[in-house]
């Protein structure tokens, strides 16, 4: 999902724990209804201890409720305040499609419909029938996974997303077209915590 590349020098005052597991492992959110039904069908993968969900020490100037994405180390932090954050493992954009900058959460969807964007159709024409059909409905086979957070800049959709994935084995890698992918269970957990309009910093 490519859009205008915006590179912003961000003064985040960031303290990153790297690949060390130094924090408290957090339990999975309770699932019911459609979440329980679909999550029983989504692919699973062992992402390794470093990319599980932890409450960690985290120093940043960003306010509580913000999201900070460390693309180099493949971590997403949800800022809790008090020097703490919840850390999730993520997959980020390939070098040619990486995105950095500041945004806000301009939209939030559960089990979102996926419509291949124009630049993706140019690279992979075999997806055109999916676009012509109005996209792929939300579900366990959808590449956006369980949740999508839509990143906006200046009130406009950047076309970048923080979303779940039907390829959890790719967590910890640079594989996407610029979006930030999370395990579906982590995308649900983050969705339950974040608010519309929250700040997002991708570094």
TrEMBL record:
Transmembrane segments: none annotated. GO terms for molecular function: glycosyltransferase activity; peptidoglycan L,D-transpeptidase activity. GO terms for biological process: cell wall organization; peptidoglycan-protein cross-linking; regulation of cell shape. Keywords: Cell shape, Cell wall biogenesis/degradation, Glycosyltransferase, Hydrolase, Peptidoglycan synthesis, Transferase. The active site is at 163 (proton donor/acceptor), 179 (nucleophile). InterPro entries: LD-transpeptidase, LD_TPept_cat_dom, Transpep_catalytic_dom. Residues 65-203 form the L,D-TPase catalytic domain. One of its GO terms (cellular component) is extracellular region. This is L,D-transpeptidase. It comes from Methylosinus trichosporium (strain ATCC 35070 / NCIMB 11131 / UNIQEM 75 / OB3b). The lineage of its organism: Bacteria, Pseudomonadati, Pseudomonadota, Alphaproteobacteria, Hyphomicrobiales.
């Amino acid at each position: 999902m490519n859009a205008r590349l915006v590179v912003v020098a961000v003064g985040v005052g960031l303290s990153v724990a790297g690949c060390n597991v130094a924090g408290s492992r957090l339990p999975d959110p309770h699932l019911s209804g459609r979440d329980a039904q679909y999550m029983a069908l989504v692919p699973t993968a062992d992402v390794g201890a470093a990319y599980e969900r932890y409450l960690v020490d985290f120093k940043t100037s960003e306010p509580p409720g913000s999201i900070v994405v460390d693309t180099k180390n493949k971590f997403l932090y949800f800022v809790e305040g008090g020097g703490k954050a919840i850390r999730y493992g993520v997959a980020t954009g390939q070098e040619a499609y990486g995105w950095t900058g500041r945004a806000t959460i301009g939209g939030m969807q559960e089990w979102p419909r996926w419509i291949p964007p124009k630049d993706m159709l140019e690279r992979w024409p075999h997806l055109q029938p999916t676009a012509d059909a109005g996209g792929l409905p939300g579900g366990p086979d959808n590449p956006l996974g369980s949740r999508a957070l839509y990143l906006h800049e200046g009130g406009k959709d950047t076309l970048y997303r923080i979303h779940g994935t039907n390829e959890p084995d790719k967590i910890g890698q640079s594989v996407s077209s610029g979006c930030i992918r999370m395990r579906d269970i982590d995308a649900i957990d983050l969705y339950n915590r974040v608010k519309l309009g929250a700040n997002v910093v991708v570094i």
